[in-house]
Design brief:
The chain has one domain. The protein contains twelve helices and no strands.
């Protein structure tokens, strides 16, 4: 059986994982279903969370599952089938997350990477970390408090901490490559929250306040509703999208 363990083949599969992860699922779905550029609506996130608001529950869930399974789990399982080393598996997983966050097809804009990262965690059978993240993001963030921003940040930071702690206490097998994987995922997801999709900070408030809001709540302002229901102004709206169509899409 052909193995993937280094050299040009390994570099090629990492690049392929980046290009695969960069497929802008939410952007394509919004263009096809509603005729809009999802980056100009709501949070501007090219991912499942914004798609839930702009396109509806079915589309949002479908996009989230594709990102979780297709981008997060599938690439790792595929290269593992070719006996790729753990180092190459980690590199492929990180490339898929990076591609989703900074898509080469959308001028390096993209999603937040949470669903893809979740798939990666499952692909590496990090069950403790997956359980903690699910409790924080789904049970507390979405169901209990109806605002996932802060709890997602806690889950992101908890990921490498949990992995390192489990390994240090010999409660689970957590090799150095796995600790590095979770640490770099945390770094990428935090970086993405801070830089968003390269939007400039709001002029009406200090830059430090905008960055603090991005870090804590993954948005530029404190109040969720005013952010997730944003509409493009006349200067940024798509020229080929009628105003009536964009209003209808935002109400879904």
């Amino acid at each position: 059986m052909t193995t993937i363990d280094g050299g040009l083949i390994a570099i090629g599969v990492v690049v392929a994982a980046y290009l695969w992860g960069g497929i802008p699922t939410a952007y394509l779905a919004a263009r096809i279903e509603a005729g809009i550029d999802i980056r100009k609506y709501g949070s501007g996130n090219v991912g499942a969370s914004n798609a839930l608001v702009q396109l509806g529950t079915k589309a949002g869930v479908a996009i989230g599952l594709f990102d979780l399974i297709g981008k997060g789990i599938l690439p790792v399982l595929l290269i593992r089938a070719f006996d790729a080393s753990l180092t190459v598996q980690v590199a492929v997983a990180l490339a898929a997350v990076a591609g989703h966050n900074w898509s080469p097809y959308l001028r390096f804009t993209g999603g937040r990477g949470v669903s893809v990262a979740g798939g990666v965690v499952l692909a590496f059978a990090l069950w403790h970390e997956a359980a903690i993240s699910t409790i924080l993001i789904v049970a507390l963030g979405r169901l209990a408090f109806k605002d996932t921003g802060l709890f997602t940040l806690i889950a992101i930071v908890a990921l490498p901490v949990t992995t390192l702690s489990l390994g240090a206490l010999s409660m689970a097998d957590r090799p150095l490559e796995t600790v590095l994987l979770c640490t770099l995922i945390c770094a990428m997801l935090v970086a993405k929250r801070l830089i968003a999709n390269w939007e400039r900070p709001i002029a009406e408030q200090p830059v430090i306040e905008t960055l603090l809001c991005r870090m804590l709540w993954d948005r530029d302002v404190r109040h969720k509703q005013g952010w997730t229901e944003r509409m493009p102004n006349a200067d940024t709206a798509d020229n080929d999208t009628p105003a009536a169509d964009t209003s209808e899409a935002a109400d879904r």
